[in-house]
Amino acid sequence: MDRPHNLFAALRAAFPADLDATAIESIAPDGSTRHYSWAELDQASARIANLLDAHGLEPGARVAVQVEKSVEALALYLATLRAGLVFLPLNTAYRSSEIEYFLQDAEPAVVVCTPAAFSWVSRIAFQAGTQAVYTLGDDQSGSLLERAAHHAGTHTPAPCGADALAAIVYTSGTTGRSKGAMLTHGNLLANAVTLKDYWGWQQGDVLIHALPIFHVHGLFVAIHAALLGASKMLWFAKFDPAAVVAALPRATVFMGVPTLYVRMLGEAALTRAAAANMRLFISGSAPLLIETFRAWQERTGHTILERYGMSETTMLTSNPYGPDARFGGQDERRGGTVGFPLPGVDLRIAGATDQPLPAGEIGSIQVRGASVFGGYWRMPEKTAQEFTADGWFRTGDVGQMDARGYVHIVGRSKDLIISGGYNVYPAEIESFLNELPGVAESAVVGVPHPDFGEVGVAVVVPRAGSRPQPAELLAALKAQLANFKIPKHCVLVSELPRNTMGKVQKNLLRDAYGGLFSTIK
Ligand code: MLC
Ligand code: AMP
């Protein structure tokens, strides 16, 4: 094993000397607050780590978690790292068929769910061979904390190497099954250190944390940077634009997906004065429209810093934080671009045979570096396909690097819709739609949406003699799939446009339905 490299130990080492200071101020929807000190965060994660240790699990055992956002849920994440186990976060919107797949595939030793979901989640978990199912509510309720309270508030982090698995993050597949991206302690720590430096993390920074903590953005990018920077977090369990705008004067850094910026721009209270204390606004997970970038600049006087990443790699590129020597010391955050490859990331634009293309040409974005994952959980063939012969990871994004080195994302080779920062795979929705009574075939395409950036539209061909109701089709989907995956509109057509090879021409469908939401404000 290489040198001890527990990610928790690195985060813990960055805690401030004054452990009684507030680490997290959790702000409830009614405005009431609860303060958690650094010492409390340390002790809460130690107690849960000791509870996990008591199960005597092998290193690499999985801890699958589907709970509402809370500081205790964060302590559970830290505890899992601390115990040298593998954290497997699950979107709270996932329904039973989705959870069944993840638990059967990952075979977690421990599952933590909400008290309300215990009966159905535990049934699935025990069938998948799980040893223990705990519950955790967003009000400190549940068996996890009850049991952890019996354990000591100190714990020595498991001495794992940089290659030890820290997390498995499932990303849906363009075809077939979801894939679990395996991220190591080394992957996550490398990215965290880079981001803290690149974004000029400063003493006294206060981060507004209003993203979910079951995806890379809220869980790794935001939390690791704040903890490594010994920064206080203002913690919102659910994004509320008015509450976040009201918190700006007490904060210095905000991270969000573009939808959050769009919604905050809808608040009259968002003004230059309200944002005067802020140092940095960061956007990612989906394309930030240039109109949003400009409107934000005009309204607040701040230039949003856009960055780009993915679950398999964590963060890959970023616009520069501050004056960059390459441009004569001018601050050059450019809207419509995702900036430069981060230090430690190699990025190339490649052609059809994986050959690097010159500046200005459009091709596939391929990457390698310390933060790039090692592969998909129990899918060696899929992993091999996603890496080139010379070891570069195929992101599935299509882009261009301009003469100054800025990366522009111009499209995706993967059939994917990014809606409000969540990924929705048309193939998955189509496979469910095609099983519904009265449906002969279907195609799901992404179209522009003023709030979510992009949303799905289902185009359905009924079976001969059937006339299924679009609303009923969507309701049937909703019974089986996470709500954010449900197309926002469904139309019936007599046939799908196909090319001479028989492939559905989704571009024609996108053109046909692209204006559906353009007038919605
Ligand atoms: C909610 N809905 C969505 C949706 N979120 N539909 C499409 N896309 C979404 N993202 C559904 C709801 O279920 C509801 O349907 C209806 O749309 C309206 O919901 P809402 O009340 O407006 O939604 P809200 O709860 O406010 O959530 C919106 C949101 C949330 C933008 C705050 O989606 C969110 O937190 N997004 C951030 C996602 C994120 O963190 N992504 C990072 C991935 S990591 P109904 O029918 O129930 O009424 C990654 C890597 C990287 O990509 O680079 O960072
Ligand atoms: P995920 O699989 O959820 O990690 O989503 C990763 C995908 O989100 C990437 O492959 C991109 O397609 C997209 N993405 C992330 N950041 C950006 C960005 N700033 N601009 C455009 N697309 C982005």
Gist of the model:
The protein is an alpha/beta fold and 521 residues long. It is 28% helix and 26% strand.
Explain the layout of strands and helices.
Blueprint: H1 7-13, E1 22-27, E2 33-37, H2 38-53, E3 62-66, H3 71-82, E4 86-89, H4 96-106, E5 110-113, H5 118-127, E6 132-135, H6 143-148, E7 165-171, E8 179-184, H7 185-198, E9 206-209, H8 216-228, E10 232-236, H9 241-247, E11 253-256, H10 258-265, E12 280-283, H11 290-300, E13 305-310, E14 314-318, E15 340-341, E16 345-350, E17 362-369, E18 375-376, H12 380-386, E19 393-401, E20 407-412, E21 417-419, E22 422-424, H13 426-434, E23 439-449, E24 453-462, H14 470-478, E25 489-492, H15 506-513
Parallel strand pairs: 1-10, 3-4, 3-5, 5-6, 9-10, 9-11, 11-12, 12-13, 24-25
Antiparallel strand pairs: 1-2, 7-8, 8-18, 13-14, 14-15, 16-17, 17-19, 19-20, 21-22, 23-24
